[in-house]
Every structure is written in structure tokens, then in C-alpha cells.
Amino acid sequence: MMSLLLPFLYARIPAFVLQIVITLNLRAPWNVAACAGIFYTCWICSQRAKTGIIFLDYSLGLEFGVTTMDVIHMTLLVRPLYVFRQLKQTESADKLSWFERFTWAGDLCGSPRGIGWHHQVKNLPEGITNSRKEFVLSRLMSAAKHYVFFDLGLFYMKHNPAFTSPAAFVSQTKFIRRALDCSVYMATNYFMVNVIFATTAVLMVSCTSAEPSSLPNIFGKWEDAYTIRRFWGRTWHQFLRRFVTPLGKKMTSILGFKPGTNGSSYTQLYTAFFFSATIHLIGDTVLNPSRPGISCPFFICQAFAITFEDMVIAAARRAGVKETKWTHVLGYVWVFSWFIVTETPWTAAVNMSGLANGGQLLPKHFPPSLCDILVKFII
User: Fold this and answer.
1) What is the C-alpha to C-alpha distance for residues 100 and 94, in angstroms, rounded to an integer?
2) How far apart are CA 338 and CA 334, in angstroms?
3) Do 154 and 370 form a contact (C-beta atoms < 8 A)?
4) Which positions fall inside the Wax synthase domain (predicted)?
């Protein structure tokens, strides 16, 4: 258990160092030195943050990637104590005592979506304003529902040779079968993330002073995903927006585009996916240092797909096509087809990279499986 916990502790060390640096309110050249120091801390910790399980190691790499972007943003581009402010905050954070600044910086780093802050990201799932009891019950139901689907996915993978034998996964050549396996793999991890988040929300509301409204769902509604733009902007998590949005605006300013123009909009779009690709490149490197960048094509091509999608939608509107439930259905087909075609080779490449570095697709020890128990009972 401790061997599995240590990598996650290593992954949190750079963020903890950043938290301390924020409280110091450093100016040049000390902010540059602090940035370099945290980068070095990330590199050292990433060498030790290994579980041997591909999905977990890749996720830990993404944690280092997100911290790297946060470091660039909060040490080189802005002075956080002056820029960020909580909704309940009455004075600038630089006037707080050191310990209060440390707590404040911890809240800032621990809220990538800016919930309860003036920089809260757009298009978050609607928060729950019910009583604490109703919130806890709803999240317990959500955790139970997602655990059932997680267990089904795990059952499929445990009894699929492609996941129990590295050679079988690598040698699989039929696209439809590989697409099915990769989709189940991604969906199972999606359900696992939802279980963890719902359980964490229950514990925070039950055991701390956290309000239900401060813990909206990690993902948005799937019915909103009838375009690729809406999938990334509404349905998928918004954990990267805190820094990709200001970085995009900074790039727009450098290139001289005025806010509200197409030049500004698409500069921010391509900048966002460039930095998203960079974060996942760091995940690739932590997973297998000899294969960096295998995730980049997937994320870069999303921006091109959204550009194409916008052109088609604009042409349809000029032709008098109205938005109806049938255009939404067509959109769902388009989005589903797009991700089957692009997500399958990306997931396969990441898993093959992990296998080549000695990683495992599945952990050796599993929690009790409801599906296994049910099958044994029926048989």
C-alpha cells in the first residue's frame, strides 16, 4: 500500500514548493530562479513517481505537467498575491500574515477550476445548493452508479487476453476490436475518476466545512457534446483553463489581435491545445522517457477539427439550416465518430509505450468484483 502511495506524495511535492514560493511574492530575478528550482524539483520527483501501472503513471506525469504550467503562470507571468482573489476576500492577499498567505496559496493551487474565486472558469457543471444531507446522498448514489460501470469495464478487461498479455495487446491489428478495447479502457478509467471524485466530495462535505456548492461534478453533461468544441468546453473537465486561458490571451496580445475577433478566438484555441499537448507530452515522458510526444498529435488535431467544424456550422447557418434535435443527433454521430478515429490510436500508442517500459495495463491485485461474484453465483 505504501509503495503505491509514495508516487502520489512525490507528485505533490512540486505543488507544495510552488505554494511556498507564492507566499514569498518574489520579483525578478528571484522569481526566475524559483521557477527553475521548481522545474528541477519536478524532474527529480518524476523519476520516483512510478507505480508500474500505465494509467496511474501517465496520470502522475500529467500532474507534473499541470504543475509545470502553473509554475510558468504564477512565477513568470503574474504575481498571484495581487492578481487572484477569493469571493469572500476583503483585502489583497499580500497584506495577510505569512501563515494566512500559505493557506490562501494552498486554496489557490488546490482549486484548478477557481471555484469560489473571481477567476472561476466558465461552463462548470451546475453546483448543488441542496442541504448537506441531500448532497451526500446524491454523491453516494453517483459513486455507486459509476462503480457498477467501472466494475463492468474491469470485468471485461480482466477476461480479455489483450489486457492480460502485453504481446496480445501489441499484436492486435483489427481496428474495430482495438477501438472497442481502447474505448472500454478509457471509459473504465473515466468511471474510476468519477467514483474517486464523488467519494472525496462526500468526505469533504461530511467531515469539513466545505459547502456542496463548492464541489460541482468533475465532468459536464454528455448531452452537451454535440460538437467537438462543446465536448472540450463543457462536457470534459475544465482543470486546465486556469492557465491556458491567460496564456492564450497573452499570445493574442503578442500577435496584436483585438478581443472578440476571429484572430483572437482561434489564437486562443490553438494556444490552449498546444499547452494541453505539452502537458500530455510530459505525461508521455514520465511514462516512457524514450517515447516523448506520442500524445501530441491527438491534442493538436482537436484544434484543427474544431476549426473545420466551425466552418461547416457557419456554412450551414448561411444556408438557412436551423438548430434542431436532428442537427444535434447528427452532431453526436460526428463527435462519436471523430473520437473513435482519433482516440483509438492515441490510447493504443500510450499503452504500447507503457508496456515497452515494463508497465502493466491492469494492477496485479483487484478489489472484489461484483461481476465476478455474480457470474460465480449464476454458474
Assistant:
1) 10
2) 6
3) no
4) 216-300
**Long-range Cβ contacts of 255-264 (<8 Å, 24+ apart):** none
CA-wise closest residue to 212 among 147, 145, 125: 125
Q: Which residues lie closer than 8 Å to 307 by C-beta, 6 or more apart?
A: 266, 269
Cβ 283 vs Cβ 295: under 8 Å: yes
**In contact, 27 and 3? CB cutoff 8 Å:** no
Q: What are phi and psi of 53, to 5 degrees?
A: -105, 125
**pLDDT of 128:** 60
Domain assignment of residue 118, yes or no:
no
Residue in 15, 16, 24 with CA at minimum distance from that of residue 80: 24
pLDDT category at 65 given cuts 50, 70, 90 is very high
Please identify which residue in the block is written with the cell numbers 496559496.
105
Among 83, 101, 89, 76, CA closest to 26 = 76
Q: Bridge-partner residues for 360, per DSSP? A: 53
Domain around 179: 132-370
Nearest to 105 by CA among 16, 45, 204, 38: 16
Nearest to 12 by CA among 40, 33, 42: 42
Joined grid coordinates for residue 192: 474510476
Instruction: List pLDDT tens digits, range 342-360.
Output: 999 999 999 999 999 999 9
| Contact criterion met (CB below 8 Å) for 231 and 225 | yes
For the residues 66-75, what does the mean pLDDT come to? 96
pLDDT score of 46 more than 90: yes
3-state secondary structure of 86: strand
Closest CA to 46 of 360, 189, 38: 38
DSSP single-letter state for residue 322: P
List the one residue out of 251, 258, 256 whose CA is nearest residue 275. Answer: 251
Q: Do residues 18 and 109 lie in contact, with contact meaning Cβ atoms separated by under 8 Å?
A: yes
**What string of DSSP letters covers 10-57?**
HHHHHHHHHHHHHHHT--TTHHHHHHHHHHHHHHHHHTT---SBHHHH
In a shared domain, residues 95 and 155: no
Number of domains observed in the structure of the chain? 2
Gap between the Cα atoms of 71 and 259, Å rounded: 26
Decide if 139 contacts 202 (C-beta within 8 A): yes
pLDDT of amino acid 4: 72
| Residue 332: CA count within 13 A, CB half-sphere | 9
| Residue 360 lies inside a defined structural domain of this protein | yes
